[in-house]
Amino acid sequence: MSITTWTWVLIGITFTIYILVAIRARALSTGAFYAAERTIHPVMNGMATGADWMSAASFISMAGLISFMGRDGSMYLMGWTGGYVLLAMLLAPYLRKYGKFTVPEFIGDRYYSQSARIISLVCAIFVSFTYVAGQMRGVGVVFSRFLNVPINTGVVIGMCIVFFYAVLGGMKGITYTQVAQYCVLIVAYMIPAIYISIMLTGNPIPAFGFGSSISPNGAEILQDSSVQGKYLLDVLNGIHQDLGFSEYTSGVRPKIDIFFIVLALMVGTAGLPHVIIRFFTVPKIRDARASAGWALIFIVLLYTAAPAVAAFARTNFIKTVHNIHYSDAPQWFKNWESTGLIAWVDKNDDGIMQYGPGKVFAGKPKYTGTTGHFGQSMVSNIIESSPNEIYVDQDIMVLANPEIARLPNWVVALVAAGGLAAALSTAAGLLLVISSSISHDLMKGVLMPSMSEKGELLWARCGAAGAVVVAGLLGIFPPGFVAQVVAFAFGLAAASFFPAIIMGIFNKKTNVYGAMTGMITGIGFTTAYIVYFKFINPGANRPENWWLGISPEGIGTVGMILNFTIMSIVSKLTPEPPQEIQQLVEQLRYPVERTRGETAISTKARTPY
Question: In Å, how far from its chain's centre is CA 35?
Fold first, then answer.
């Protein structure tokens, strides 16, 4: 069968499973909608958390980033993995002991203020929408290539699927759906990784193949007998140098920027609301820590393979497109060319495809279906000074990797199904955060405290429906490529949520004035910096113009430092929290089980802000 047929079959099967699971596990109460009635086993929750966290950025874009950035791309790998250690050690058991549904509810009670709760829920919605933009973009990329539909149409299809099981099932339905999605995405990622590792190095473990030498079969595949017996990374370094790039294993990004990006991704992971709420779904406090441990194990399977996938894809990509006559271009190139995510311009009219450093276009190519390899509208935007003739979107590397390596069509289709599973699982979790922020924190918690459970559930579903529409629009008009957009979301979470949660748990003297001022300062500064360099003056988005050499992806660390600083100063200059709040913090510091009949920790000592 063709790739398209296999894709329709596999996506049809997996989508049917998702829908059936959502129907069977549909939420009939607010407890089921928000926290799955706290009935999820730690192993299942760890698997669902893994799917929730391994978004389109992890599945589709991370290996693509490493593939093009080399060593510098590893900052995404280190940041996201390290963040989970922080989450397991510093947040999960304490928030589970607190026992409420949402992070804004924790912040509202801990800082005894409705205003703090409102600021927190606004941050939650803002961060979640920023994050979900990357997921919907990933959905559109997959559909555009493998089902031969426009990217915008693919986004709409994804919206419809997420709408169904997120609105119907709530957290309960989403959790069991995410378990199924994890199984799909990890199988889809590992099968081609193992396959290509064996083909190039003879080693079936991708992480080991990454550091192995090229096998005789690999040399034959690369059509270069001189690489046999050489280490893969040495071969890739040589290819890079021959084309004029820096070595693959060397870094060119400022070290301070790498450090700040890694730190922003780490603390941003620990502050992401859609990940934190997963730990409210387990029966006991110790299950929260166990869930984080299981999630890390499930995540490691993909993350240890990602650098290998990046190196395999980069090597195969260059070997199959550089210095090839366009008429002899591989079929995978022409397949992806129709999506506008890869393009070729013959700058010297020799018919030979040349790949090297530099940009091809001032913008992005737009396929018209008439010129074959690039849209006529891009002719005036060609950068003649660059020797590079090939434009390639980083987000296609993982999806195109099986085709580049000439794997069977069913493997290619399986990767498409895995990419959709990764994007949709995270999108569903984010949409639940948005809907719960609207229904539980805003409507029930602030505007209509006497609302019935039925009314709250209705608001939750309406909020999810509205969020799906906005998420779709962000997918159609994304502010960047997938992993970059997600990095912005992590930076915003680092600058807003993380300091308020950490200080709320470990510092009983932090008060409402400090928390509110810190959150506003952190997220305000971070947002302004990102907006300036990405939208107001994108031409200035270069290392020499960044403040202290820190990029928009890493500025969340500075926002976090500002948040901590302002929070501490203001808390010392203003009245201490009520004694009841300080006792609450003392209780939260010890992640032990509540006694039978004891209710969740809470307080009503709020001031009318």
Answer: 22
